[in-house]
Design brief:
The chain has 243 residues and is mainly beta. It has one helix and twelve strands, in the order αββββββββββββ. The radius of gyration is 22 Å and the shape is elongated.
Length: 243
């Protein structure tokens, strides 16, 4: 699975490079009078974004993963040079999850859902497809980040599953729609891609007397680690500035 993640990252990088090479001629093209050109310079070097959106979640194979909920984030972007920006983002997700008690049979072992708050923090690079300009007010981009997704209150269920911190990869695509020189609306689709690890008791549950319980939570043919996609759609208000 790590090889697949690496391959996906290489593919995203190749696509971003191709997009940058394709966007450069657009930004440099002539043929329009300055007042009529569809291209406008982005005049600020930093931007703050406050977003509200929806976190898709993923219960995962065992059914105890983080579920969908309302998300809100704050983000700072700063221009690095050329078409690239550096961003740092932190968000909160109102989510919930089920718990599994592996000492009980399949008819009674699942309880919940229980409410939780997730913190999603990530740092990454953004490639602006129209460089330091907008096209008819639009500034589309692709990006890739990495960070942590963790609950404000971690817990370990009966059976050994720990609902705690997960290292996440965050591919993203979006656009800014400028409604002024410094003000824009941001629409972004991102995917929190991270791994769950299942305890041995999910495959070989035992009751309080140490006797085996059937069926198990997960079949023995399943892997003890599972990568999951957790898409999120965000809409935000952007304010550009310089410091």
């Amino acid at each position: 699975m790590r090889a697949r993640v690496a391959a996906a990252a290489r593919a995203l990088g190749s696509a971003a490079l191709a997009a940058a090479l394709g966007a450069a001629p657009l930004c440099a093209q002539v043929g329009h009078e300055p007042g009529r050109s569809p291209f406008r310079d982005i005049v600020t070097h930093q931007a703050l974004t406050f977003s509200l959106g929806y976190f898709g979640g993923n219960k995962a194979e065992a059914g105890v993963g983080w579920q969908s909920g309302l998300a809100y984030t704050g983000r700072l972007d700063t221009k690095l040079g050329g078409p690239f920006d550096l961003y740092v983002s932190i968000g909160w997700v109102a989510t919930k999850r089920y718990k599994i008690d592996t000492t009980l049979d399949s008819a009674s072992r699942v309880s919940g859902p229980f409410k939780h708050t997730l913190v999603a923090a990530d740092l990454g690079l953004v490639l602006n497809l129209t460089g330091a300009k907008t096209w008819r007010g639009l500034a589309p981009y692709v990006g890739f980040g990495a960070g942590e997704l963790f609950p404000t209150r971690s817990e370990t269920d009966v059976g050994g599953y720990n609902a705690g911190s997960n290292f996440s990869f965050v591919p993203l695509v979006g656009t800014r729609l400028f409604v002024g020189r410094r003000v824009a609306v941001r629409l972004e689709l991102r995917d929190y891609f991270f791994r769950y690890e299942w305890p041995l008791r999910y495959f070989y549950p035992l009751d309080s007397n140490g006797l085996a319980i059937t069926p198990s939570v997960l079949p023995t043919s399943s892997k003890d680690k599972q990568w999951t996609h957790n898409p999120a759609l965000l809409v935000g208000f952007v304010y550009g500035f310089d410091f």
